[in-house]
Amino acid sequence: MYNAQLRYVAEQQKAGNAFALCPERTLPVGRVSHNRSNMRAAYDLGRKLATAKLPHIQEFLTQV
Asked: Structure pTM?
């Protein structure tokens, strides 16, 4: 099911129907984590990526 969902997202991106933010490296947390510093590091990576991609996100949203 997970792989099918990944394929669906990729197809929607190619069709121009979706914009996905994907980390460039593996996140420092697993599916379940109680380590606050690792969770904060994952959050910071996501925020940094979103900030860097913000012009692309805004462009995508104006086309939808």
From this structure: 0.76
Q: Is 8 helix (H, G, I), strand (E, B) or coil?
A: helix
Report which of 64, 27, 53 is spatially closest to residue 42, judged by C-alpha positions.
Answer: 27
- Which are the contacts of 61, defined by CB distance < 8 A and separation ≥ 6? 19
Contact 60, 42 (CB under 8 A): no
Of 15, 4, 3, nearest to 63 by C-alpha is 15
Rounded to an integer, what distance in angstroms lies between the CA atom of residue 11 and that of residue 6?
Answer: 9
CA 35-47-52 angle, 5° bins: 145
**What does the pLDDT profile of the chain (64 residues) look like in tens digits?**
999 999 999 999 999 999 999 988 888 888 888 999 999 999 999 999 999 999 999 999 998 6
